[in-house]
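In this section we walk through a basic example: taking a raw amino acid sequence and producing a predicted 3D structure, encoded as discrete structure tokens. The instruction is simple. Fold the sequence below.
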Amino acid sequence: MAISINKNRVARICLTLASVILLFFGILHLHGTFFSTDLYPRDLGLIEKLKTSTIQMDESGVIWKLWIGFNAMFSVGLMFIGSVTLYLATKHFEFIRVNSAILALTICSNIFFVWIGNRYMISDFSLSMAIPLVFFAIGYSIILLKRLDYIR
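The resulting token sequence is shown next.
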């Protein structure tokens, strides 16, 4: 008895899972930026120093405000990527299947997130970006292989 697997459905599930994970971590990061102290330095004295330090480019660029701003922008970026790919995977899968440039750019972004995480951030971040990367890559691979007629 042969089991038939719908490859488009598997690809769609992978893309949906990856998108939900990115959206979730974007929301979690936004919460950590504005509604908790999870992203604060342990050294409270350092926070005071950051609140009075500026960047050389512009005296109005207070390091603490920049820290909050960059974290907030990163959060919104994750939520945007997750939301757009979730919308396309669930409502317009045929579009993303035929025109996979958005998916390719999403994968490139995730590769960059994993690289930045490994190079400059904490291991939990790298892992949280590697998981959706794997799902995006699997979904994209299925789409490409099906398009090239390697799998039915």
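Looking at the output, two observations stand out. The radius of gyration is 19 Å. The mean pLDDT is 93. In the next section we compare this with other chains.
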